[in-house]
Amino acid sequence: MFHIRYSGRTFEIKPKVFELSTRASDREIMQRVADWLGVPEAKLSHYVIDRRPSGHVVVRPEAVFG
What we know:
2 helices, four-stranded mixed sheet, 24% helix
């Protein structure tokens, strides 16, 4: 499962919707997420991919501390 946090919303997308495995490269995932959201990939430049032990992939804004 892909969990995407974007613009204050959370989306849960099954891998078959993206036609992409959760084991895909970070680059492939970001490209597919940008396409799905309908935004330029540059809008996700401050986003990170967090691969959870469960196998789920979380695409979220980078955490800023301090």
